[in-house]
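Chain A, query sequence.
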Amino acid sequence: MRKREPRIYTRLTHPLVRDSRDEPFRRATWDEALSRAAAGLHAARGAFGMFSCARATNEMNFVAQKFARVVMGTNNVDSCNRTCHAPSVAGLSAAFGSGGGTSSYAEVEETDLVVMWGSNARFAHPIFFQHVLRGIRNGARMYAVDPRRTSTAEWAEGWLGLNVGTDIPMAHAIGREIIHAGLVNHAFVRRATSGFEECARLVEPWTLSLAEKVTGVPAAAIRELAHAYARAERAQLCWTLGITEHHNGTDNVRALINLSLLTGHVGRPGSGLQPLRGQNNVQGGGDMGAIPNRLPGFQDILDPDARAKFESAWNTVIEPHHGLNLTEMFEAMEEGTLKAVYCIGENPAQSEADSEQAVRRLGALDFLVVQDIFLTRTAELADVVLPATAGWAETEGTTTNSERRVQRVRAAVTPPGEAREDIDILRDLAARLGHEWKYDDSEAVWDELRSLSPDHHGMTYARLEEEQGIQWPCPDPTRLEPPHLHGRLWADDPAERGRRAPFGLVAHDPPVDLTDETYPIRLTTGRRLDSYNTGVQSGGFASPLRRGEYVELCPEDAERYGVVVGEEVQVSSRRGSVRAPVWIDTALRPGLAFMTMHFPDDVDTNRLTIEANCPIAGTAEFKASAIRIDKLPVTAVRS
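Chain A, predicted structure.
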């Protein structure tokens, strides 16, 4: 087996420009770099897209979306939220009118039942999982619904190892069992929901026996989970990318929400829905309006009154339609209608599905500006590279976590070399394009956001520090709202209850990339505890757990293909091939393989994944690719 050394990315400390795409970067002054960036973006007005950053502060995301809408006149702004939790936002918004998780972390410690669906939280969300463990120690039962028997599932009372892409049949079978067993919370359904009869008809065909055939989970296990969830006094239903990273991710989310509506497990302490965010400010980026269909404070861009408020504050005209999301921007690159991109802190060249296609599309742009802390694979394709500060150690501001808690972050160290604050860079670039913004510091940006977003109005910097973080909504600077959302659904007064939560009428739709004789193995992807995203930040640090990238197989499949641990094989999908060593994992079942995206410089897993996108949210089906494993000839194996 060849020795694998991770690529170590060096910190960007000064601006870089290139005089043509055929020439290498050269060092530039800030004045030259900003002038070039301004000229390139000005030429592309009307064909421009902004990629904002889920790891940067709320304040940066606010200014970035303002730059797109005010300076460049477009709603084409998005972030990696599109890659992961856009279906959660879309599904929760459709049901409740708000895209945030409904509960606080503390409620997980005080609940009676936790369902971890499509989530290896012990590895992917270790801080949240500590709250889960406290809940278990306090007496909560936990069930894990996941194709793999993950490290999280080892703590569960029951593991339901469903086939990849069968979450909707599983949810419908649970819903049908709840209905047939007489466990529906009819008082809540009548009071707060709509579409129950239609939902009951939809799930009726999904008997426990049919669900067992489709999902691979024993009927008795499905029935046990249905009764445990419905009978619990309080229950938390949590999910991550195992639910959302599918071509029908939004439908998956709606199917899970249906279970909470059937049982009344939403809108009250200890009962709720928790989409677990993987990066420090995925929630905040969307809250700040760095998405194509919402203004800051999650205000609908199609609402004339909302637009008028921002137009008055910003002295501009906001386009009265949705912009392109990240997926659509890549498609527009292919079509030639999107000609320039300003990419802040994202690495789509390695994080997008079908990465070879993503690199080709980025390379075809007329102009690309990348603002980052490392020279990523995406930055290597740029015309101008701007060195920024790290949002978690060199920047003042706030971030928002999965429980909607806004918290202060502070600069602890001095940034290296000529690296500059993201907000300062955006402000100076806006000035070169004719817009003078007077932001003395991050607090000035935050106060502008507070003046425009009712959900954040009561959160001053001083109060955030005093309270050690505050969950939105917080419209009043003198009081705090309950930590759970949608308590209105339990109000006696119909006027106070407001809009009913509709059941989602969603049908089973199998994975797009079907397995067959040529590609007989289902590949699913995910995270490991010791690494982070595409490895740019984590790859340069040693970890006793890290072993690099492998294709993980169950013992039966390893024996079937005649491969052993450490043997390098070729892994191929309908889009491309990579070479990776084998690892054997008893948590997998026959026909299922697992890989991560953490080591793309060595094994580019996203060359294998498919760009089959959710039509509502635009998220790709990272979790369900069809692959084959080929042994390499002895002469082809590298030493």
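The longest strand covers residues 577-584. The two ends are 6 Å apart (CA to CA).
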